[in-house]
Amino acid sequence: MASLHPATAAPPLPHSLAPSLRASSLSWSASIAVSRIPPPPRLALHSPAPPHGPGSRQQNSLVVCAAWTRRSRGEAAERPNRKSWKQRTDMYMRPFQLNVFFSKRFVHAKVMHRSTSKVIAVATTNAKDLRLTLPSLVDENACRTIGRLIAERAMDADVFAMAYEPKKNERIEGKLGIVIDTIKEHGIIFV
């Protein structure tokens, strides 16, 4: 048994570490014994054979290209109406969306389910009970009331998280900021 290969021979299990394998520091990585087994050989990935014939696209990618989700300019130019991965999956990742509209006379807000377009909760200062009780239908107090009503009605419908996507060049400040902050204060999470 003395002629065994040193890499295949099982070392004896001492009660303490050998002096050459003793940890020199107190970190967890220093407590791992160094392996003398050589690493496996690396796998080489080769590009697939280029397609033959006219009109065939030549790709400079490896066989495994599942991690690429962003489309190249050429692919976007060939199929301009195809939606990106985020556009296709966003409505399922964030299903409830808040819509807020401010007119000169009223404030309207609703929570919609994005994939089915079902309205979950609605609040507006044009409602009869709010029209008769609020002194002004467009001021900051009316925005706080609308935010509170939307939060209560959404929680009654078992919706505890929603998203708000601002339009282009729209800032979340002023009356819109008051509505969203009031909804957050009443327990709704914005994702």
From TrEMBL:
Subcellular location, record wording: Mitochondrion
Chief location category: mitochondrion
Amino acid composition bias (Pro residues), ranges on this chain: 42-53
Region (Disordered): 42-61
Annotated SUPFAM superfamilies: Translational machinery components
GO cellular component: mitochondrion; ribonucleoprotein complex; ribosome
The keyword Mitochondrion belongs to this UniProt entry's keyword annotation: yes
Gene3D superfamilies, alphabetized: Ribosomal protein S11
Mitochondrion as UniProt keyword: yes
Keywords: Mitochondrion, Ribonucleoprotein, Ribosomal protein
PANTHER family: 39S RIBOSOMAL PROTEIN L18, MITOCHONDRIAL, OS02G0689700 PROTEIN
Family the entry assigns: Belongs to the universal ribosomal protein uL18 family.
Name of the protein in question: 50S ribosomal protein L18
Lineage: Eukaryota, Viridiplantae, Streptophyta, Embryophyta, Tracheophyta
